[in-house]
Amino acid sequence: MLPQDPFILLSVVNTALRDGCPSLEEFCRREDADPAALTAALAAVGFTYDPDRNQFR
């Protein structure tokens, strides 16, 4: 289960993307997470996914 706190979530997601997930879609598949909900949760605190960098910024 992914953390509910958006800043901890950001850290968990970006670490996973950096350390082995080639894309946000792959991360969501592995974690059984909804990509739209995850993106919305992080957008609510000012972060957007950059596919070229494979991270939220």
Helix content: 40-55%
Q: Gyration radius, to the nearest Å?
A: 10 Å
Low-confidence stretches: none
Main pleated sheet: 2 strands, antiparallel
Output the structural class: mainly alpha
What is the approximate shape? globular
Distance between the termini: 22 Å
Number of strands: 2
Helix segment tally:
3
Strand content: 5-15%
In round numbers, the mean pLDDT is 97
In spatial order, strands of the major sheet run 1-2
Count of all domains: 1
N-to-C series of helices and strands: HHHEE
Tell me about this structure:
With about 55 residues, the protein is mainly alpha-helical. A hairpin with a 4-residue loop joins strand 1 (about 50) and strand 2. It has one domain (about 5-45). The protein contains 3 helices and 2 strands; from the N terminus they run H-H-H-E-E. The protein has helices spanning about 5-20, 25-30, 35-45, and strands spanning about 50, 55.
Helix-strand blueprint:
Elements: H1 6-19, H2 24-31, H3 35-43, E1 49-50, E2 55-56
Give the tags.
mainly alpha; 57 residues; two-stranded antiparallel ribbon
In short:
With 57 residues, this protein is mainly alpha-helical. The chain has helices spanning 6-19, 24-31, 35-43, and strands at 49-50, 55-56.
